[in-house]
């Protein structure tokens, strides 16, 4: 939207610049026509016969010269204004073009940043999936290991079945008890000399 707005402004300024340049060319054409008229008038007066009064000729030429000089001055003033306006319009167009380039560069940077963020999000999502799979595998292994411990602990002769669901601490206590009993039994056998 910003780029479109800048481009519209630039098109308006360029259209105004074309209009002003056309006016300048028209003024230059008018100036050339006036100069040609002045030259034609000078030629005309040069060709006047000696019979015409020289004073009348001088008065007419001076009047015509004043008129033409005033027209030339006005045209030159208008041309100066047009040149100034053209300079301002060109500066505005250059500024608008720079803003368009800057806005496009900013948009490209934003798109690049968005791509990097999306890439990071995809990587994190992949790692999360891998972590979940690993956690499920570890949980399954832990449950199998726990069940084996419970089975080994409570399948010993003389042990009673657990009353219900056991906590991890209860399983560890029962297992430690069996280890202690077997250690004592081994010591006792060693004392008696049995292999």
TrEMBL record:
It comes from the Eukaryota. Residues 3-44, 72-99 form a coiled coil. InterPro entries: CC-FHA_domain (IPR052642). Keywords: Coiled coil. This is CCD27 protein. The gene is Ccdc27.
């Amino acid at each position: 939207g910003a780029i479109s707005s800048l481009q519209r402004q630039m098109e308006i300024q360029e259209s105004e610049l074309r209009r002003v340049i056309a006016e300048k060319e028209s003024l230059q054409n008018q100036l050339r026509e006036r100069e040609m008229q002045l030259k034609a008038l000078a030629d005309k007066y040069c060709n006047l016969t000696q019979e015409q009064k020289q004073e009348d000729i001088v008065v007419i030429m001076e009047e015509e010269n004043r008129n033409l000089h005033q027209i030339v001055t006005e045209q030159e003033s208008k041309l100066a204004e047009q040149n100034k306006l053209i300079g301002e319009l060109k500066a505005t167009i250059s500024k608008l073009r720079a803003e368009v380039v800057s806005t496009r560069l900013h948009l490209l940077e934003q798109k690049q940043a968005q791509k990097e963020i999306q890439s990071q999000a995809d990587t994190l999502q992949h790692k999360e999936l891998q972590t979940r799979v690993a956690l499920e595998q570890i949980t399954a292994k832990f449950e199998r290991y726990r069940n084996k411990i419970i089975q080994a602990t409570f399948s010993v002769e003389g042990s009673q079945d657990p009353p219900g669901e056991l906590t991890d601490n209860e399983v560890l206590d029962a297992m430690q008890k069996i280890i202690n009993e077997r250690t004592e039994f081994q010591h006792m056998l060693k004392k008696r000399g049995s292999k």
